Amino acid sequence: WLFSSYPEVELETMTVKVTIQDFVADVESELFFRNMQQVSREIMFIFPVDSDTVVHTFYATMGDTRIEAMLWEKEEAQQLCKATSGMENLRYLQDQWDLWGPVFACFLGTLPPNREVAISLCYVQELPLHSDGAALFCWPHELFPRRKYLSCISSEEGMFENLHFSICLKSAHGVSHVAINSSHTPLQYTAPDQTSAEVSLKLPPWMQDDLNLLVYYRGSHTLSAVVERRDPKAPLGSLLGDPVVMVTLTPSIPEVVANSSQLGEFLFLMDRSLFQDAQLPHLSSAHPSICSQNTLLFLLKSLPLGCYFNIYSFGATFKAFYPQSVEYTQESMENAVGCLSSICPDLGGCDLLGLLKSIYSTPLLHGNLRQLFIFIQRKISSEEEAVMAEVYRYRDHHRCFCFPTNRCDSFNLSQGMALETKGECVCIHSRMEMASEAVKCLRRALQPMASGISLHWDLPPGLEVSMIRKAPEMIFQGHQSSIYAQIHGLAQDVELSEGAVSLQYHVGSQSFNYTLRFSLFPSADDRLPVHRMALMHLLWKLAWEGTSRAEKDIRHSAVKSSISLGVPSPFTSIVAVLMKQRDAWHHDSLPPDSSMLLSSSCNLVPCQLLWLRGFRPVWFKSAKFWIVQKCQFCLEMLDRKDPDTEALSQLSASCKEADSSWKCTALGAVVALQKANGSWAFTTALASALGLSNADVDGQSPTEPSAWATVLALVWLHQYKWKVPWSELLEAKACRWLRDQAEVQLDECLEAANSLLGCFVEPTVFRI
């Protein structure tokens, strides 16, 4: 986006070419902005980036001057930045702008009246998977000319001379069709086998919407491969000197898996300020400690037997219930429930970063899948970027479900963590929602997922594969993962032109195997989008793992390649140079010696990758998240007249604030008495919570006490759960336990329970 203090700097003309190959996009754009005012304006170009985007080319032209961004090794770049005047503009932007998240920012200086600036921006990007299996490409509405500035070429065809937005599509599977939220030309195939096609926009999207382009491919999407030829100018054996393959994994995951042994590790991270009685009165009149403890109680009770779990509370320091995650049994569950009341309020600092580092440094237990539930209401001060870096580093090994309160300063951080790990972020508007929303996410976390993922390669003799980005530990339903590999060596038989890759994974106890054959000699692409993405992953891998003496040469070569290809990394920083057009060097060459940058013909200008600390998220794919959440909140407020919802609110409000126990409601008491295996024991406490006496329960018992108590509690929950979904997991556990009791006559028990409780619950409650 081009941001200015005034709206009169208008985008007049744009030329954009997007090439999409399966799930990677290569974007070339030229954008022409004009100052419509009679006074000069200072302008800055800001473009949002994320962990799947590499901005590799940027330059701006104003008259006979040109500003070009380039990469330098970090140490030398830092020296150059010290010689750059105006860096305070970026620091001000970082702290004062209303946006939040990572951006590419370049200060362009002063634009005189009625003068234009031409922006050239090129980037590559991994595309996310849409819910219906399409590849999703987005373009921000700010980078379209306003409709009043469009100049029509042909009224019949609806084409405009200052809007050129062409899209080239390629896939070995074949291109099926596209869906675009704006007027466009018909899809034109450019290959007889329909493996390539073209389409162009006629108009920007209406109502200031971002452009959303969905690309649908033919056949199975479980495996796709994009092979990119080597750079002929690079030495053999280097990353650029060898072909690179990008393999996108989209496992087919059944909705229901019988006898699933996929349990996982569940970690619950609770901000201790949520236990402060006086905090956030806007959320609810209910006792804060009770609501927070109830949430943890319901989560604990909903876990399946055999999984692993732990609970962490964090504030200025963090503390775990167990030194490491423990298996979920009756004993460990009871111990954890007993510790809930020991969590003390803490309004000091918020060491979420230290807690995450501690968790990530712990190996996965027996290969169990790790999922984090993070409840937070405090700001993480200046550590947001460091937190996101840690989350990004381990994004293939876990998933985050985040629950910020609706006035939480860390809302955007929570959203970013969830997006990065393919989890979910739910804004908590009232304390009564906390348990309900958390258990909804737990239900999603318990859905089947692909694990035990492995790839096997079959290449002609003489060729080998080196993994750059390995397959993840797990892939969740409706998501994908892209891996990168370098193909090196010399084929012994040049007639063999194909390779193959096989994907193996498990969903529960079921095994799946898919094989894809791909060409080793694709058409040439001198823009090297796949090499750029692979290089980004390689550089981050080298930064995280450290480099041994043997790897220093690899790092030196990779950094040199990243500078020549414009791929940012932890080893480089951006420097922007303003110079006369006649002095500009060829873009494909390496940057000049730093002494030239201090010459009279060029000046350094502020330009960096920044982390903004405002309140509006900048990611394309999440731009509507805030609107969705606010609309959902409004609908919830309008729906408060539902009598069952009112009953639940009244029940919560009736709890005496002086009673700090989570047993202040019959609901909490019934839940608290459920065992880890899903059953209930017949006790006076259960009878009292159900509104019955021991004599009532004993007198109508049609079966042994535990089964009878479980049926009663199940029917009571089902009848009086006030239409909230959090009880479904508790009911499912009870049903599984009852089905394992072969001697129990469920129909007879249900009839007796309905009679005793004065309700009518149908046999479908047992899920048989």
Automatic annotation (TrEMBL):
Domain VIT: 1-125
Domain of life from the UniProt record: Eukaryota
InterPro entries: VIT, VWF_A
PANTHER family named among the record's database cross-references: VON WILLEBRAND FACTOR A DOMAIN-CONTAINING PROTEIN 5A
Protein known as: VMA5A protein
